[in-house]
């Protein structure tokens, strides 16, 4: 029984040692997706288009807010001349305008708003290209794992020898200037 227990312990130690060696022998690396995106010419086009949309939508939101403020200001100025019924009608119109402005902001800039959807729509093809390039680089270099430094997933230190960002840029056909 003692020999069996010793054999069992020895087997467990061998299995653990083999597993540790296999993990240690795996090749890994990292990329910096932010660096890669900023080097990609299509990303600059996407950013410009998003910035133009953002500016136009913000301007529209500001115009709606300005209209509400003007309506309130006009109401204050004419308040003494209005009957209670006229005052309530104008106040209702102002409240409707405010609700419309809030609805616009939520529809455009909300969690699943048009801006977010447009951003996803424009970035998805670029992200797919980059992911495909990362996949090819990882396979070509026999990497078991490839981490993203920009995602800040607990990487405290990274050795530049394991940075594959330039390989991904090369795979995408982007020269580092």
UniProtKB/TrEMBL annotation:
Signal peptide, first to last residue: 1-17
Pfam families, alphabetized: OmpH
Coiled-coil spans in chain: 47-81
InterPro entries named in the record: Chaperone_Skp, Skp_dom_sf
Database matches in PANTHER family: CHAPERONE PROTEIN SKP
Swiss-Prot/TrEMBL keywords: Coiled coil, Signal
The name this protein goes by in its record: OmpH family outer membrane protein
SUPFAM superfamilies referenced in this protein's UniProt entry, alphabetically: OmpH-like (SSF111384)
TM helices/strands, residue ranges: none
Family the UniProt entry places it in: Belongs to the Skp family.
């Amino acid at each position: 029984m003692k020999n069996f227990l010793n054999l069992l312990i020895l087997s467990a130690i061998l299995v653990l040692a083999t597993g540790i060696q296999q993990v240690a022998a795996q090749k890994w690396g990292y990329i910096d997706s932010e660096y890669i995106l900023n080097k990609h010419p299509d990303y600059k086009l996407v950013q410009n288009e998003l910035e133009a949309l953002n500016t136009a939508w913000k301007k529209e939101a500001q115009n709606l807010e300005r209209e509400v403020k003007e309506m309130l200001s006009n109401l204050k100025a004419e308040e003494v001349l209005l009957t209670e019924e006229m005052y309530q009608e104008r106040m209702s119109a102002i409240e409707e305008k405010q609700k419309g402005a809030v609805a616009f902001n939520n529809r455009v800039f909300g969690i699943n708003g048009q801006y977010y959807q447009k951003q996803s729509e424009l970035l998805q093809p670029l992200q797919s290209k980059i992911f495909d390039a990362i996949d090819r680089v990882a396979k070509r270099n026999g990497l078991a794992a490839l981490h993203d430094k920009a995602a800040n997933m607990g990487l405290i230190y990274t050795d530049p020898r394991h940075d594959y960002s330039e390989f991904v840029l090369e795979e995408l056909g982007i020269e580092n200037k």
